[in-house]
Amino acid sequence: MFDEFTGPFIIGHMNYWLFIILMMTGLYIVVAKGNLVKKIVGLNIFQTSVFMLYISMGKVTGGTAPIFPHDLDIDPDVIYSNPLPHVLILTAIVVGIATTSLGLALIVRINEEYGSIEEERILEIEQAITVAENTAHGDVMGGRG
Amino acid sequence: METEILHHTRASFQDHLPVLVILVPFLAAPLMVLLGSRRLSWPIAFGASVAAFGIAILLLAKVIDGTEISYHIGGWAPPLGIEYRVDAANAFVLLLVTGIAAIVLPYARESIKTEVPVRHHTLFYALFLLCLTGLLGVVVTGDAFNVFVFLEISSLSTYVLIAQGSYRDKRALTAAYDYLIMGTIGATFFVIGLGLLYMATGTLNMADIAERIADQGGNRTVRAAFAFIVVGVGLKVAIYPLHLWLPNAYTYAPSAVTVFLAATATKVAVYVLLRFMFSIFQPAFLFEVNTLEFIILPFAVLAMFAASFIAIFQNDFKRMLAYSSIAQIGYILLGIGLLSEAGLTAAIVHLFNHGITKAALFMGVGIYVLRSGGSFLDDIQGLGRVMPLTSAAVVIGGLSLIGVPGTAGFISKWVLVQAALEKGWWPVALMIVASSLLAVIYVWRVIETLYTKPPASDVIAGEAPLSMLVPLWIMAIACVWFGLDTDLTIGASQTAAQGLLSGSAGMR
Hints:
The complex is a heterodimer of chains A (about 140) and B (about 500).
Chain A: H1 2-11, H2 14-32, H3 36-58, H4 84-114, H5 119-137
Helix pairs in contact in A: 2-3, 3-4
Chain B: E1 3-5, H1 17-35, H2 38-63, E2 68-72, E3 83-86, H3 88-115, H4 121-140, H5 144-163, H6 171-201, H7 206-213, H8 220-237, H9 246-252, H10 255-280, H11 283-289, H12 291-312, H13 317-338, H14 341-372, H15 383-386, H16 388-402, H17 408-422, H18 426-451, H19 466-484, H20 487-501
Parallel strand pairs in B: 1-2
Antiparallel strand pairs in B: 2-3
């Protein structure tokens, strides 16, 4: 009974379990960490987990690398892995790199303007700006400061 | 429906239109960066978006009679190759997006002069075109993974465009960063959903997925895919609890960017949601999981009230409009949630009408920012007398936002109320009217400050430059025009709604 459970369900789906763990780790870091760079790291882990999901589903049991022999003399008995998810994930990797670099560039600019990359500090500064604005423009709201 | 299949070998210029609408802005963007000339960048950007608009008109003319164009990228036939598919529904969205782009660009030219440093103008226009490319690609493609790629092209350029507002207010940077985090999570959820769909069906072509999914509606993989895709796209749409990126992003982005995003980006995301919900997952499947009735509908109603209520208490006109956008998205989702032909028609009509209404209002805000340096209510007070033409257009936009008869906003709310009554859900109909009353309050606050108070002493008097005034009035007149002549909007929406409700049959 136990073997039946661990066998196909846990071991057999190991990639998918790892995918879920990685995904949740990444998502947790994005939500829980206050440092903007760490958030990007979390986002990266989150995205990488998806690469794993896609690559796992491209695997065909007993399949080899999907490369045809040079003379294109294809043996019908050879099983090939599905190359399509790999190709898709190449695209997703490029998107991930673009997102990461853009995120980091934004952090550099935020650091220049706010002098901090800690979310708490940034929120404090923004709150101060909002309060100042409300005092300056508050008349229309009946002088609420 | 007849599907016209094109082969690479005998294709003429006309046959390449579905890909050209994307390629023109896509190639113009790097071209203007390579040329590096500040003088040439605006004409190139404007030329490219007008060309795209022209192509969109040609495409709509081709498919308005119900034919569909299936274009094979590189001559590779689907399902292996990527297919672009144009039908009446997405040709209509193409027309809206390219049209708004062509109208916003003349407006942007003056607007960004004061808001973005001159050395960034070339890159600004390049990103604008890339954003346009992404949005058009999302609409025109018939390949599910391609939707993700184009969604990311438009999203990445949007983040940068929003961050350009940092020269006026540094909070644009954190707004862009927050949007980047949330947008990427949304996009990644979307990809996970696509992965699960691919697992269940073994194909990425939308029409093929739809066909194969029909056999396995109750499959748990398919259900998980549905959940991931709805949440992922929901982040882009700014469905009520997922809307947190929107107010800051709209408030701190440069005015021209806000106009473009408010009128097109969320609308394209709604289109994706509709395509996936109805064309790929079958309407029957939707009934089964009851997602709409128990999740989308309550949140839509919540958005209508909560966001309108927050809007009332804003003292920044631009921010007020941003919150009102969330409420208006609530109306669109309500229409979808009614899950009837009338409801869907209302949703699509409101998609269009709200697009032009918000474009007019945000254009007005941009002009006020240009002339008085801010969009707070005490910055704009009394401007109704100093800038009569601009303010008149803003008032028209405001009336359309409330839904006063004779404006576009009235038509969509009328259709929506009718759809609710048709289902016998009169409390929902009452709520639509009640939340419109909230809109009366915040719009009236603006009109009151514009006309009854004296202008601030340091205001630089004078109307807006003509290149901003003309786009603004085109939008304002469109608000009235589509409030009186509803043949195009309701007609096209009805066709689109019928197509969507027929499920995958609508894609064959």
